[in-house]
Amino acid sequence: MSLADQSVSPSARPLVKLSNIRKSFGSVEVLKGVDMAVQEGQVVAMIGRSGSGKSTLLRSINGLERIDDGVIEVDGECVDPSQIDLRALRLKVGMVFQQFNLFPHLTAGENVMLALKVVKKQDKAACRAAAEAALSKVGLGHKFDAYPSQLSGGQQQRVAIARSLAMAPKVLLCDEITSALDPELVNEVLSVVRQLAEEGMTLLLVTHEMRFAREVCDSLVFMHGGRIIEHGPPAELFDRPQTPELAQFVGMVE
Ligand code: ADP
Ligand code: MG
């Protein structure tokens, strides 16, 4: 049993709770009733083949997709798909994507400060202090004035992580954040995520980094065809898959 499991009392309220989430694009149902709970401080990895619905699920939690049915609760509040208060939701739920999506004409520091200004409406000094702290946390305190084009892909992704962290979210969603990086740049980004995990940040990560998932995550979720068909401790799922689908997936990627 991991530390995170031990610290969860039976009465603890999950930080993110998904109940029977359904979502279709046109006539294609891509989420077919997903249930999941992420406790505070837990690190959950989501794996599965391309097209299994992982990104759609993460995007739904952040209000980037509107679900057709089911209930999403974040920090005890329902994310009502018909009247999502996106601003309030995104103060609680940070998200980092495969593509870093930094503004090329803004420095690293300005990229991080932008959301603080717009969403948190903080004054300039407070924005700057928060941005400096967030960049330092990802090891880029010295790159405040650098433009994205002057940074490596790994550094750009760390700026993107800092941009999310500066908002002090309750949970950070990461969608394949190392998939666009050259192999030699993957580890610097994974180390940042590992450090956040060790500090107790609640994380929900879609990843293809199986060793990382095994070493860092408390819980693993396997999605297949719009459903979670296995979940549990990573070592258990990797070593003793219960479904042929997971056995095949693990054989394919390991
Ligand atoms: P994953 O992240 O596991 O690869 P996605 O959630 O991206 O899976 O996609 C699940 C399915 O939904 C795929 O078949 C994909 O083509 C489809 N899909 C995703 N986004 C859209 C969209 N905006 N419009 C139509 N189909 C989409
Ligand atoms: Mg995806």
UniProtKB/TrEMBL annotation:
Coiled coil: none
CDD domains tied to this protein: ABC_HisP_GlnQ
Compartment(s) of residence: Cell membrane
Keyword Nucleotide-binding recorded: yes
Membrane-topology annotation of the record: Peripheral membrane protein
Cellular component, GO, one term: plasma membrane
UniProt family annotation: Belongs to the ABC transporter superfamily.
Protein name, UniProt field: Amino acid ABC transporter ATP-binding protein
Species assigned in the record: Azospirillum griseum
Taxonomic path: Bacteria, Pseudomonadati, Pseudomonadota, Alphaproteobacteria, Rhodospirillales
